Amino acid sequence: MQNQCLVNGQPATTVSITDRGLAYGQGVFETILVYQGIPCLLDAHLTRLEQGCARLNIPAAGLRQQLLEDLQVLKRPSDSAVLKITVTCGSGGRGYATPETPAPTRILNLSPLPDYSDNPDQGINVRWCETRLVCQPALSGIKHLNRLEQVLARSEWHDPRIREGLVCDTRGYVVEGTMSNLFMVSGSVLHTPDLSQAGIDGIMRNEIIRAARQAGLKVEVGQYSPQQVEAASELFLCNSLIGIWPIIRLEDLTFNLGDTTRYLQSLQLQRKET
Amino acid sequence: MQNQCLVNGQPATTVSITDRGLAYGQGVFETILVYQGIPCLLDAHLTRLEQGCARLNIPAAGLRQQLLEDLQVLKRPSDSAVLKITVTCGSGGRGYATPETPAPTRILNLSPLPDYSDNPDQGINVRWCETRLVCQPALSGIKHLNRLEQVLARSEWHDPRIREGLVCDTRGYVVEGTMSNLFMVSGSVLHTPDLSQAGIDGIMRNEIIRAARQAGLKVEVGQYSPQQVEAASELFLCNSLIGIWPIIRLEDLTFNLGDTTRYLQSLQLQRKET
Q1: Which residues of B touch A26 (CB under 8 A)?
Q2: CA-CA distances (angstroms) from residue A152 to A157, A160, A239?
Q3: Which residues of chain B are within 8 Å of residue A19 when distances are taken between CB atoms?
């Protein structure tokens, strides 16, 4: 399939060099799985986008409607695809001062799904990253454009057999993967790190929490050390594109693809509509 | 004067929506005073740009030469002007993973100097910001494109009589202004905050430290509480565009424009060539 790009509803592949998304990272983005032509979990993605805009002083009134209209302009892909939506504060303002009435920039980019033909959903190798995520509650949770910590963490390894790295915050608690959220099974409880200080509040993470509770599983959100993660009986990573990737190796430790992970994978939550 | 923009040496005002500067803030920038047609302190600015590239895995071999060639393409402005140089990691790579051989994007934007006809160099009012800067040694010092903390700090006030806000780090130490570095005079010593954990290592700041030492002044770089800043006999802010702005009011406290500040202002360091 060919990429399709829209900027503010018009076919375009560039933005102004004065855009505050480029200058300061004043913007947010979503990476959405398009399955059988339908953007999955769209409502949740748009809601997080709106919440991020509010945190970054980007006006979001009417934004959802505009984005839904933009989506109508795109040709529906026959294969699975990735839809990236970016919303920035647009151009203007004086230095760091946000313009009084910002004119946000909407960027849609529909592209082919990455090649996962090596079936990472059967289990992946991961490592610990040395890069630490800072604790900044003013920015935690939202998927903003200031992602240098993730870029630095991802630059720590080049071995293609390692599919993801786990990252701790500056206090030493485990937060997430560079591009995914982390879950662990200990006993009969599903655990996932608290994201109030650092990390991205993943759409798939929330779907998994909801589905697990609905299935009667106990889910705890807390602060976990690397040692607690390493002591788990099952580990898996998730995001909107990959669904669930079980971890079968973390550095020198091996893990089984266990029943809880298999059950949650079987729900195919990443393909849900709405 | 009219803006003049170049992208990779060619007249252009846009960059690709896939540029990693926009997507992740993987890039650095410099804001340079152009005085009587000459970019001031150019060598220091280009050196900091190169150092920032090295920290962000952006190859900088040949970059300085390319930027100097780009500068030859720009028409020399007759008035004072601002030259903003941005260098990003360019497009490509897979998600956060930096491409194996990045093709950086060079953006030059020459624009009029902001209007300072109210003579802020005679003294300005400033305030304390509530936004805290995180301590991230991996990113401190360099002028990278992840500037949401500055945007949030600057959004804390709208009163145009307040020209700048002072920002502390998460430990409570004073770091800098939202767009400037801070100096204080206590007794016969010039003090300025240490920037190893947070903040931008300003070109003007370094010029001031050098000039002050050359003039026989004692200069100390350290960790200072807001109370220590408030107890100073003179306070001033600096950056490459404004030179030195004395602080005459900080919240309810008033300060004199003192001899040390006046002396350093008289050197007109911001207009230095090289």
Answers
A1: 147-148, 151
A2: 10, 17, 20
A3: 22
- Say which residue the tokens 């300060």 belong to: B255
Ranges in chain B annotated CATH 3.20.10.10: 120-271
ipTM rounded to 2 decimals: 0.97
Smallest Cα distance from A259 to chain B, Å: 30
CATH topology assigned to domain B4-112: D-amino Acid Aminotransferase; Chain A, domain 1 (3.30.470)
- Options A30, A88, A98, A143, the catalytic residue: A143
End-to-end C-alpha distance for chain A, whole angstroms: 24
Nearest residue on chain B to A159, alpha-carbon basis: B97
**Measured CA distances, B243 to B144, B182, B200, B240 (Å):** 21, 12, 16, 6
Q: Residues 6 or more apart from B26 whose CB is under 8 A from it?
A: A147, A148, A151, B20, B56, B57, B58, B88, B89, B98, B145
In angstroms, the Cα distances linking A53 to A8, A104, A168, B247 are: 16, 10, 26, 34
**B176 carries an active-site annotation:** yes
Instruction: Give the separation between CA A272 and CA A41, rounded to whole angstroms.
Output: 6
**The pair of three-digit structure tokens given for residue B231, joined into one six-digit string:** 């107890």
Q: d(Cα A14, Cα A107) in Å, to the nearest integer?
A: 9
CATH 3.30.470.10 in chain B: give the residue spans.
Answer: 4-112
Nearest beta carbon to residue B150 from set A96, A131, A178: A96
Find out whether B70 and B111 touch, Cβ atoms under 8 Å. Answer: no
Active site residue B156: no
pLDDT tens track, chain A, 274 positions: 889 999 999 999 999 999 999 999 999 999 999 999 999 999 999 999 999 999 999 999 999 999 999 999 999 888 899 999 999 999 998 899 999 999 999 999 999 999 899 999 999 999 999 999 999 999 999 999 999 999 999 999 999 999 999 999 999 999 999 999 999 999 999 999 999 999 999 999 999 999 999 999 999 999 999 999 999 999 999 999 999 999 999 999 999 999 999 999 999 999 999 8
Question: Check: CATH 3.40.50.1470 for B120-271?
Answer: no
CB contact (8 A) between residue A98 and residue B26: no
From B76's Cα to the closest Cα of chain A, the distance in A is 21
